[in-house]
Amino acid sequence: MSKGFGILVIDAQEDFFNHPNLMPTRSEIIASMHALLDWARQNTIPIFHTHTVVAQDGSNAMPHWHTNSISTCRLGSVGVKPPPLLAPHLNEPVFTKQFFNAFDLPELNQAINLAGIHTLIVMGLYTHACIREAALGAYARGLKVIIPIDAVGSYDALHADSTLHWLDGRAAVCTSSKNLMRDWESTPLFANASSTWKHLNPCNVEEVLFEVIPQTSFQIEAIGRDVLNAQASWKKLSIQTRSAELKNWLRILKNKEKLWVDTLITDLGKPLNDANAEVQYGFNLLENICATLDDIESFANHDVRYHPLGLVTLITPWNNPFAIPISKIGPALGFGNVALWKPALPASHLSELLMDSLKEANLDHLIGLILGGAHTGKSLIESPFSTAISFTGSLVVGKKVASVTHRLGIPLQAELGGNNAAIILRDANLSEAAQDLAGAIFSFAGQRCTAIRRIIVESVIADEFSLLFKDAIDALNIGCPHDSKTQMGPIINSEQKAFLLNQIELEKSKGTKTLAIALTPQDLSENGNWMTPTIFINPSITSPIWTEELFGPVIAICQCQDLEEAIALHNGVEQGLLGVLYSAMPANQDYFMQQAQAGLLSLNKARPPFNVNGPFLGWKESGIGMPEHGRWNRDFYTKPQIIYKR
């Protein structure tokens, strides 16, 4: 039953999707829209489509199209049609419009009224124009409006972000398609803004591990005021004293080592060895932060002073919920700041435990923990207290954060993931490369920003490598994350698993071949989010499988003729976080290090031991602003001041 819900699809047409500056990308929007359409059809939710159609001679085009000689959506052209995945079904009406507002069409109004719609989901193109007008048109007619932010797009990112910012909470509710599909039956989007969010066990989705009640903007402001009031006395302490306080926190963290490991395994399905590695990395990061603070004081030039920024906002992901928060909280406090910290929802329980450790160290009054999803995050980044934001997360969300910090005029440090590539040349040790890649790629089910997503192999060794790689993958241990032998556990949640499976089916529908691999062990719970590795062979380099970070156990292998072509393939995507070369020849290594466009480079190892004192950064779309770690922490978390004396 539709329960009074309906979907309005706006201008899902090739000419609009083919704009070169579309954000999110064409494939990302189409995937989200396709998932929503499938969900709506399964739940018998009425779907209405509107298309912009212009006469072949352009006589009825909008005036500004005439002025700017825009020839778009002409009757009978390929560009007027929708992408195949978004084509209307036979029982779904299509309405033709000429201008921005679909509700200028009386027949659309009548169809929505006859269907008994009270809540309309609006998706399509473009956010800053026709989506905005449709939302306002529906609102003016008494309808509740939901805009799934990953199923709308625009070529004007700043204008689109401002549009969604203004509409949200006024004429519409802006949320993700995943949240929409999960919550629609209880409609908490309208009924209760603070509805409980439940985190399910990745190994058994019938078990609720914990619940979260998202915090409101009023709660965020109250917490922000309290934390900011605490900064006055904290920043007056010497840097040695603040370092000593952090060393005490480190001692407390180390005393609870088993708690952190067990929680990572249970809450996230992170395999035991990966959980141990993350906890040790977190300890090492905090040790380095304290050492850096001590060094800065020892070698300080007191004519140059580094003042804290004030209150900083820290946003951390779910996949490294121990090490990454420590890497941000440590330097933020060490340099005299206080912070509001929002972890991703699946990391909420571990974050509360970390706050307990801060309380034990008498540091909890300096950190405000903010729990919630996209709405909470939106309220947080627009908080009037923030003087800077450090963000680790997806490219789409990061771009939205960047537009806010640009508008507010505050610094942003952002790590936005990677679509990382490994190049394998004929002089490499192929057996070692295959073993190294299999373990690095699929540990934690590929849910790491530094995981390799693309393999580029010289054609003369492609067949030999594929056989070795298949054997290495077949030998992977997929299973219970508590088992020390397990290398690959479950996907974080059912929504992400469904998204990945959908992407796999879309790629298979294009005829792209896959490398045959072993099946998931039969003794695992059928209620777990288990997947097996999927390797696509020679997909189109314009396919999402090649161009985007899918964040799961899905990768692609392409062939190249030589190192020069391999570098072109390596660099030919928007992201630039990690690049790997397998080659024994120094000349090849030198060329790779000169030409590869990534912030982190590695030779003959897909998962290098990251130096806690070195910069962690992405190039191109993978990073914004100052690197993290080492001396770069001071450059982000302070503002310098020079003193001149006569």
Structure in words:
With 646 residues, the protein is of the alpha/beta class. It folds into three domains: 5-192, 3-Layer(aba) Sandwich (Rossmann fold); 216-416 and 624-642, Aldehyde Dehydrogenase, Chain A, domain 1 (3-Layer(aba) Sandwich), CATH 3.40.605.10; 420-617, Aldehyde Dehydrogenase, Chain A, domain 2 (3-Layer(aba) Sandwich). The protein contains 23 helices and 26 strands. The strands form six sheets. Strands 1, 2, 3, 4, 5, 6 and 7 form a seven-stranded parallel β-sheet that branches. The chain starts with a strand and ends with a strand.
Descriptive tags:
23 helices; Aldehyde Dehydrogenase, Chain A, domain 1; 3 domains; seven-stranded parallel beta sheet; Aldehyde Dehydrogenase, Chain A, domain 2; 646 residues; seven-stranded mixed beta sheet; Rossmann fold; alpha/beta
Task: Give a quick summary of the entry.
The protein is of the alpha/beta class. The protein folds into 3 domains: 5-192, Rossmann fold (3-Layer(aba) Sandwich); 216-416 and 624-642, Aldehyde Dehydrogenase, Chain A, domain 1; 420-617, Aldehyde Dehydrogenase, Chain A, domain 2 (3-Layer(aba) Sandwich), CATH 3.40.309.
